[in-house]
Amino acid sequence: MSTSAVLAATEPAAVGNDPWWLILVKIVAIFAILVLLVLFTIVGERKVIGYMQVRPGPNRVGPWGLLQSLADGIKLAFKEDIVPAAADKAVFILAPIISAIVAIVAFAVIPLGPNVSVFGHVTALQLTDLPVGVLYILACSSLGVYGIVLAGWASGSTYPLLGGMRSAAQMISYEIAMGLSIVPVLLTAGSLSTSEIIGAQENTWFVFTLLPSFVVYAISAVGETNRAPFDLPEAESELVGGFHTEYSSLKFAMFFLGEYINMVTVSALCATLFLGGWRAPFGIGTIWPGANENWWPILWFLLKVVAALFVFIWLRGTLPRLRYDQFMHFGWKVLVPVSLVWLLLVAAMRTISREYDLSTRNVLIGLAVVLLVVVALSLLVPERAKKEVDARDPNPQSDFPVPPMDLVVPPSPRLKPQVPAKVGADEQPPTEEKED
Fold first, then answer.
1. Exposed site from 30, 63, 106, 190, fewest CB < 10 Å?
2. What confidence tens digit (pLDDT) does each residue in 61-82 have?
């Protein structure tokens, strides 16, 4: 092992004491990684969904169509920038800027790798390591809703306003479940620092010991990023385009950029909290001791992020959009109660394991399996009961009012009654001509 590798592996990282040029390099590198991931995620999404639908997808710009997203971005920059006459112009312009900026700055506390040596300076592959890094990421994701709500309100149009209101209710509902799913991770790791959470997963990833938290986080992340099947704020079949209906040119591109950077951020946070962060997967670190040293961990981290992004794409190409009442019911009556029960179980088991010197990992794995089985049964029982009722009733009625099949719709009261034309005294009524 080289001298630089030894220094990087043994000396602690001087986070916050880096020289100004190294901080600038980290900022540019993070921004470049985010933009490149967004460009290739858009192309990958169109390619994967194209293969699912038995069509080629983009294949004209660049090799295998890989430069299609770059061409689309350049095209958006030169399109006409339209501001509606009824819009609040200052807020209308500020909203996409808020959405893009808060999505980018959230990545500042995500560790991309261990300590490395850069031109003689030992530094962490992380812009900064806050003691409350997880809270910082949650705060940034919470601020993202302001851009969407302000965009819907400032557009001065009905459909964007409805999309903004939907987004506010959606993000508030699923942020609660996401926050509750992260608390067991913080209890198990004993810290809010992202780097220390990765250090706590050196032997076992939290996806195995805290499986219910991982499932709830994954579902909440899809709802938090407004992605299908939870893309209700921008439902094309209902709201034209949702909150960004009135946007064009670079403003629309910034909303697009913010959405995909949010996907990258929640995927990176998922890898950090549950998948070991930058550590090598599948026991590679035990076979190859250098897998978790130097610059190799960046590769493992990016592979985990790309795998999570593929799940986003897979869901969009597979599942239909939920109805709004189903969406809110699932968030408040399924995810939140499950997260609360699991949080209480984790806290109780950690206390019991300390008192009686039990293996916390084995106990948590057993509890996770039991809880998932109970939740699956609770979701299947109502469906079975409904099928039994449908089998007994030949004409089942749904929970929503359904008009009878023989309903006769009365004419609209706005229609003027048709008065037959009067025949004048000197006019003869029309007579039918008889054919000879």
1. 63
2. 989 888 999 999 899 888 888 8
Count other C-beta atoms under 10 Å from residue 322's C-beta. 17
Given phi > 0 = left and psi -120 to 50 = alpha, else beta, which region is 14? beta
What is the distance between the alpha carbons of residues 123 and 180, in angstroms, rounded to a whole number? 33
Contact 251, 81 (CB under 8 A): yes
| Angle, alpha carbons 292-298-300 (nearest 5°) | 70
Token readout for 126 is 């992380």
Q: Which residues contact 321 (CB under 8 A, 6 or more apart)?
A: 228, 229, 230, 231, 232, 235, 237
C-alpha distances out from residue 295 to 125, 231, 281, Å: 9, 37, 15
What are 378's two structure tokens?
Answer: 């609770």
Does residue 229 have a cis bond before it (omega within 30 degrees)?
A: yes
Q: How far apart are CA 401 and CA 219, in angstroms?
A: 30
Which DSSP string corresponds to 241-285? Answer: TGGGTT--HHHHHHHHHHHHHHHHHHHHHHHHHHS-TTSPSTTHH
pLDDT digits (tens, 9 = 90+) for 377-436: 776 665 555 555 555 554 554 555 555 666 566 666 666 666 665 555 555 555 555 554
DSSP 8-state symbol, 428: P
Return d(Cα 393, Cα 113) in angstroms, integer.
61
Element housing 162 (H / E)? helix 158-189
% pLDDT > 70, the chain? 79
Q: What are phi and psi of 157, to 5 degrees?
A: -135, 160
Residues 6+ apart with CB under 8 A from 66: 40, 43
**Which two three-digit tokens encode residue 368?**
């996770």
The tokens describing 319, both together, are: 């599942």
Predicted confidence (pLDDT) per residue in 305-323, tens digit:
999 999 999 998 888 888 8
The answer to whether 188 and 346 have CB atoms below 8 angstroms apart is yes
Domain boundaries, the chain: 3-282+292-334
What 3-state class would DSSP assign to 226? Answer: coil
Three-state SS string over 2-13 comes to: CHHHHHHHHCCC
117 bridge partner residues: 122
* Amino acid symbol at 151: A
Residue 301, φ and ψ in degrees, nearest 5: -65, -45
Cβ atoms 49, 317 nearer than 8 A: yes
Q: What's the CA gap between 331 and 29, in Å, rounded?
A: 36
- What is the predicted pLDDT for the residue at 135? 92
Beta partners for residue 118, in sequence order: 121
